[in-house]
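Researcher: I need the complex structure. Ligand is pyridoxal-5'-phosphate. Inputs:
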Amino acid sequence: MLTLDFHPTGHHFLQIPGPSPVPDRILRAISLPTIDHRGPEFGALGLKVTDGIKRIFKTQHPVMIYPSSGTGAWEAALVNLLSPGDHVLMYETGQFAALWAKLAKRLGLSTETLEWRGGDSDLPEAPGWRHGVQADLIRERLEQDKEHRIKAVCVVHNETSTGVTSNIPAVRKAIDAAKHPALMIVDSISGLASADYRHDEWGADVTVSGSQKGLMLPPGLSFNALSPRAIEASKSAKLPKSYWAWDEIIEMNKTGYFPYTPNTNLLYGLHEAIEMLESEGLDQVFARHKRWSAGVRKGVEAWGLPVQCADQDLHSPILTGVVVPKGVDADALRKTILQRFDLSLGAALGKIKGRTFRIGHLGYSNDLTLLATMAGCEMGLKLAGVNLAGGGVEASMEYFSTHPSQSGPAKAA
Ligand code: PLP
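Model: Output:
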């Protein structure tokens, strides 16, 4: 048993943008007895989850379920599709896009990174980390690549380090408009099951995701959703792969099994998560996150602090990045908020360390947990001596009370 030197009362407020708070229903499902992963019960579970997860990705094609964190699924996508030295076009929207590029280099791929062009006085350390992918830059670069040296374009759907989403259909259109054969690989690790995502319709070749965000599970499962083109490309890809290789998994998944010991108890949780998401309805789930995001944003705006996302249409439904005034250390602020109010907020990562904090509005949350979160932030900001323009909690309360939710108790009544 882990010994803590303090025991706070009540629930901890886990408002980081993943891992997200796990519903009790899922925790109970995970606590069922572990079963034989070669036995008949497991086969039934395997078939249910491999089929159900396709509906969440909105695909008819196979989805790989790995017992790994999202980083493993990033690697899986690249090693299955590409060969040593292949050139890959990445787009840096934030720290996760940058880390994916670093991983690609370590695998022996040649990478090239595009970034938003422009300045920013609120966040001069990383102006591009306030914007989504500009698809026209991708089109321009692909049109120059007459010899088709670029084998894949990698983009992040919901950049968890910034709170900015990207328009994935626009990236597909850019690749098609350039008449370029590059594969499109999308990271929707934090977007899936919280923001609208359509693997087949949007023409993704591989979509990478993870369990600990919109699926409301603990960390430990990750995914590669495939397209027929991706499966074809994997047959001639030469990067070394064994554990991550799609071919054996696709074959064994047909009967509900895996070529290795799968994460049985998390798969119980996945089964429960799919049931919960589908019984609410995916469209309702997406609307719920958008509404939370709008309510939190109202509060941040009332404080007079810049929301990190600078593109009005691209605010993340999953998290809100808040830029703190120069001279305020956002990490020290988060530390105070954790110590005083038992509330965890997301840190600013990479080149913006200490310049922002991130409020997660995903997983097992509701209006009141978000209002408590806003209260914790507001108290912390005041303790840090930040001059706030107005009451953020009040503004969020006003938004939530005047914009009724389409799901939850009001709908059920
Ligand atoms: N990509 C995005 C967008 C993420 O948010 C994360 C983690 O937060 C990752 C990749 C890496 O996933 P993991 O930490 O599960 O390995």
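Model: Summary of the prediction. The mean pLDDT is 96.
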